[in-house]
Amino acid sequence: MIVLARRLAQLVAVVLAVTFLAFTAMNTLGDPLFNVVGFVAAVDCDAVEAGEIEDISGQGGTTLGDCAVVAEAREEFHLNEPLPIRYGRWVGDLIRGDFGTSFKNRMPVSTVLADRLPKSLLLMGMAEVFAVALSVPWAIAAAYRANRAMDRASTIGAFGMLALPNFALGVILFYFFVVKWQIFPSRFEDDNLALRLKSLVLPALTLGMPLAATYFRLLRTDLITTLQEDFVVMAKAKGLSNRWIMFRHALRPSLFSMVTVFGLNTAALIGGALIVEQVFSIPGLGRALVEASIRDDYPVVLGATVVIATGFVIINFAVDLAYSYLDPRVRRES
Amino acid sequence: MDTPPQVDPAEQFGVVVARRLGFGFWIAAAWIIIIVAAAALAPWLPIADPNETGVGGRMDGPGWSNWFGTDNNGRDMFARTIWGARVSLIVGFFSVLLGICVGGTLGMIAGYFRGIVDRIISFSVFVLLAYPGLVLALLIVGLAGQTLPIVAMTLGIVAIAPIARLSRATTLAYSEREFVAAARVLGATDRRIMVRELLPNVLIPMGALTLLGMAITIVAEGGLAFLGLSVEEGFSWGKMIVLGSSPRTLREGPWVAMFPIGAMFVTVLALNFAGDRLREYFDVRELGIGAA
Known about the structure:
The complex is a heterodimer. Chain A folds into 2 domains: 2-81, no CATH class; 109-333, MetI-like fold (Orthogonal Bundle), CATH 1.10.3720. Chain A has helices at 2-29, 34-37, 45-49, 64-76, 83-95, 109-144, 149-163, 166-180, 193-226, 230-237, 242-254, 256-264, 266-279, 285-294, 298-326, 328-333. Chain A is mainly α. Chain A contains 16 helices and no strands. In chain A, helix 7 packs across helix 9, helix 9 (193-226) crosses helix 12 and helix 9 (193-226) packs antiparallel against helix 13 (266-279). The longest helix of chain A is centred in the middle third of the chain and has 36 residues, at 109-144. Chain B is 74% helix and 0% strand. Chain B has 11 helices and no strands. Chain B is elongated. Chain B has a single domain (70-287), classed as Orthogonal Bundle (MetI-like fold), CATH 1.10.3720. Chain B is mainly α. Classes of the chains: A mainly alpha, B mainly alpha. Chains A and B meet through helix 1, helix 7, helix 8, helix 13 and helix 14 of A and helix 3, helix 4, helix 7, helix 8 and helix 9 of B.
């Protein structure tokens, strides 16, 4: 219970700190109004009213009416209030479940998130499934005959895999499977689940293969260590089969570092998904974030920020819970 | 686990040095030196002008006149790959330098003074780490502009948190050691202890981290390029890969993307390998003469 409360406090603190940073940065470095009303936003309306400037854009056609639009937009998005108050207002809305309105098309941010997030989650989920499905059997096979040819080759292979940036891997896969052999569609197809899954295979592989290499390295090392423990020797002495020992005795306690990294890697996974979505043109959360941040559409940026930071903290909490399942010793200590 | 045979530490050190760095390390180091030299000397090398169009035909395959082929404007890809290394390596080096200067210092301060300072720094690091670095970089570059200094600085800022964490942990471990206590008893000031006693010990793991960090930031710069946020003027490997990766270019001339990919892959591989080797080499505990 105390652990849970502490975690919750941590979550709130992290989300507040991250969004406050993003909020301040977006308001001081960019001009949010520009996206609402266009270049007129930069005009000094006081000067226009005083009659000091007449033609603002240099192309004619900018009148006092435009200044009214600017003022109206300022009012609508509360941009004329001091920064801390606006941030407070934003947090207040957030608590009530209101993420605000996108500057770009005036859609509620929650609609944008609800549209984009499932695609990103599906992509990341598939990537993790691929990564685990590849790495666990691979590591078991390698650790089973440690330091033999197969083990050495796969260790080198994993090291090489980690040096290949995911966008490079994406381009290579795209070249062979889309351009050359035309097995997979060149863009994201959203018509039904089967098509959606099919168009996510390559992106998920791109994201999952480096992960698989990371998991492989950790699990292999841990398995080799576990296989030298006394309880494995004991199991062997009892005459249990190698397969039984590997799967029923050695595998579970060896999953420890892999699970840790599973949590730690979430940030890298989200960053990777950002790029992979870009390479394969998937309209996911990452793309929404990229587009919004280029346009200074800060309600969307902040909404995505909240989702990402929350997801990250929750996954790390889940990892902590997984420890106590994997190793009973942790449970007893806490 | 096979335990290493017990030998005289000094003797072991000498033997192990020769064995540990190994042949692979020198190959990796040689590649890094070649690529750095090529990038630094690019204006004086006898290669084509990377921005001159029509050096070869349009989309010529790799051959004798253009080793890496030409792109759709007939620009020489070999020259471009070498020039692209300049931006990639500059971004990689300076961002890690910034990360180590700021992050290393913050980590040492947190680990040495503990208390409230440590709390504040650790929480900031925790917050920074709770947010995907690439997203942070994207926000900063997207807002502040796409120039070489800003890109390098941004990736440096992203590197601060993990480096600060490592430096704090190392400082914590060392500030409990006898030589620090001895210095304190002798009346050394905090500053002197940090600079003369702790810094040399913290710098060692940082050294290996420099190479690994460069690999990470070179890749991160490529990632930014894919988000359309790399340097606007000039080009890096990442930007070259983006330019070569449109379906049409891939169909007509896959080499336009594949050579920069190859260059980046081999360089990152070499940096990772050399960094790993150096880390093992300097990890005193693995040699059996460490703290325990």
